[in-house]
Amino acid sequence: MTMDDLRMIRGFLEEAPPSAEVVAEGRRRLYTRRSPRPRRFSVRQSRAGLGVVAVAASFALTVTTALVLTVSTGDSPTSENAPKELTSRQVLLSAAEKAAAEPTGRYWHTHVINGQAYHVTRGDYMITGARMEIEQWIARSDRDANVFRSRIAGAVPQTDADRVAWKRAGSPKSWRVLSNGQYIQQSATAQKWDLQRMSPAEKEGMKALLAHNKKECARNRRACPVVDRPTQAQREALADDPKALKKQLQGNSLVKGPDIMLENTGYFLDEPGSPKLRAAVFRVLADSSGIRNMGSVTDARGRAAIALVARGSHRAGDFDTQLLLEPGTYRVLGVQTVLVTGRGAETAGVKPGTVYKQQLFLEMGWTNSAPH
User: Fold this and answer.
1) Which letter, b or e, does each residue of 248-284 get, where b requires 16 or more Cβ atoms within 10 Å of its Cβ?
2) Would the pTM count as exceeding 0.85?
3) pLDDT at residue 229, as a whole number
4) How many Cβ atoms from other residues are within 10 Å of residue 193's Cβ?
5) Distance between CA atoms of 157 and 171, rounded to whole angstroms?
């Protein structure tokens, strides 16, 4: 999901933010709508009062989501006794150097899991729900097909302690939790994988459709989408324009800060990019103030990571947004947001140090291996 997708989404939304379930479903639909074949769909409203957001752009790209806190499952990270030999700038410049040296391949491949933390009142424990799992292979050549698969994975107790409390509460398989001011249902049952394939012919059809709508937009501004989706060439041009790239990472939110940039970095790097562009992202972050190296943490998958963190204040409380990098390789492992101080009903019962949101990359990079 690109930053322009997020800007487009904000332009369509009448009120923000929607619940994490709507966000998860929107992400799935964004990835499965990369086909010129017209289809209709809507976000189903739950009996618990889940808000409905249905968005349609004139060029048939439909997206539904919002920029919200995304979450992680797993134990709360700790940086006590962690070595902090390098500054955040030094780590980011090293990451830029590594990224610039990475080879490209036939496909851009990412496998990401997003999720949202919820407090279960009955039993007093945390679960990670709204877990959207997306895997994509985006071909470098138009002669190869793109492949996308996605599913809503089942909700799970977040930590070992939460699992003990969950068992003590009778090991329920569904939960009624508060999200965005409404009570919604979360299920432990994972949905089936949804597989989508965009053939070379469909790619050409999409190009033709976008070109047609660009002409219509030039003739009639009312036919224009809220935000034009940038081409790959336009994205690549940002590598030579640090100011424009920083603006892209800051997003369209009224609230700007280094925490927003770290969060948006995960979305930006999820899309295909040359080694030069990916290196430029790390250099922009290195030149930005307010980011610190908090040392070593362990992510929700049990992987060791260097956490580069920036603090931000939001409606639900104060949070530390962490960009997670693999030690040595500086490969991006994910972005997670940790609660510092909660306020209001959304974070009632949530302990400081809880991983409140996640975007974890199981795979990210260029590959010559065919989709499987």
Assistant:
1) bbbbbeeeebbbbbbbbbbbbbbbbbbbebbbbbbbb
2) no
3) 66
4) 10
5) 10
